[in-house]
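As practice, study what follows.
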Amino acid sequence: MASDIRDGETIFRNVCAGCHVRGGSVVLKGSKSLKLSDLEKRGIADVSSITKIANDGIGFMKGYKNKLKDGEDKVLAQWIIQNAEKGWE
C-alpha cells in the first residue's frame, strides 16, 4: 500500500544517517560521501544506481532490501539525489 511507504527523509534518518551523517560529509565507519561531486566521480549520481546500492550494498556497505518496504528504495534514492543536488543544505 502506497500510504505505508515512508518519506525519503524518514528512511534516510532510520537506515542511512548512522554512517552517512549530513549526507556523508561526516564520514563514519568507512562510509562514502553522498555529495554530488563524489557520486559523479563514482558514476552513481542517478536514482537507478542509488536504488541498487540501497538494496544490494556496495563495498563495505551492506544492502538494506530487508529493511525497505516495496518502493522505499526508489523514494530514498530520489531523496538522496535531490539533496545531493542541493548540496545537503
Notes: The longest helix spans residues 72-85.
